[in-house]
Every structure is written in structure tokens, then in C-alpha cells.
Amino acid sequence: MNTSNHKLYFTSSKGVVQWDWKGENLPSDNPSPKYKAYNHQWYVPKKSEFTIISDLPATDKQQVKDELWASLEAEIDYMKAIRKIHLTNHKNNKGV
Predict the structure, then answer these.
(1) How confident is the model at residue 15, as a pLDDT?
(2) What are residue 10's phi and psi, to 5 degrees?
(3) What contacts 53, CB < 8 A, 6 or more positions away?
(4) DSSP run (H or E) holding 20
(5) Which of 7, 54, 55, 91 supports an S-S bond with 17, CB 3.0-4.6 Å?
(6) pLDDT in tens, 11-37
(7) Position 4 pLDDT exceeds 70
(8) Which of 91, 40, 5, 82 is nearest to 49 (CA)?
(9) In which order are the strands placed within the sheet that holds 15-21?
């Protein structure tokens, strides 16, 4: 999957801003957050793993990053719950 042309946008209190995952989208022994976000089914991101690309003052970037993280938290919590169910089912069906 070529993600170099994908642009991620978020509507914040400062307007529409562009953001992206940190790192390159290349497989390696220690894949970047960007690679994992697009290629790992159960990847759960950390707040430190994305960056605001739009040209904003540092204080505004931090505020936008906090807003973006807050908007992603419900989806991240849902993903964690689904992963937990998956792992429980996998563990329970291992001996079958």
C-alpha cells in the first residue's frame, strides 16, 4: 500500500490542519508508527506517534494535537476492546 500520497486532515478549533504519522512507511526490523498504522491490523497508536504538518505556532500545534488525540480516543478504545476479545477467543480456541 503506497501511502505517500495520502493526506490526513483534522478540523480543529484552529481550522482544518494536516497531520501525519511519524516516520517512513517502510518495513524494517523496527517499523515506524506510520508503517504500523497502515500495515498492522492491531496497531494501537500513542499520542507521541503523530505530528501536525500545518504551519502553526508551537502552542497551537500542541492544542491541535490534544484535540486530535481526544477525537481518536473513542476509536482507539474500541480497537483495544476488539483486540482483547480477539485474543480471548484465540486463547480459548487454542486447544480445539
Answers:
(1) 95
(2) -140, 135
(3) 17, 18, 19, 20
(4) strand 15-21
(5) 54
(6) 999 999 999 888 876 667 778 888 888
(7) no
(8) 40
(9) 8-12, 15-21, 50-52
What pTM, to 2 d.p., does this model score?
A: 0.72
Backbone angles phi, psi at 17, to 5 degrees: -125, 150
Question: Which of 24-62 are b and which e, b meaning 16 or more Cβ less than 10 Å from the residue's Cβ?
Answer: ebeeeeebbbbbbbeeeeebebeeebbebebebeeebbe
Between CA 96 and CA 88 the distance in angstroms is 14
The Cα–Cα gap between 77 and 70 comes to 11
Residues 37 and 45: beta-carbon distance below 8 Å = yes
Q: Which three cell numbers stand for residue 6?
A: 495520502
d(CA 91, CA 33): 27
Q: Give the type of residue at 2.
A: N
Residue pLDDT, tens place only, 36-45: 888 877 788 8
The pLDDT tens digits for 50-91 are 899 999 999 999 999 999 999 999 988 998 999 899 889 988
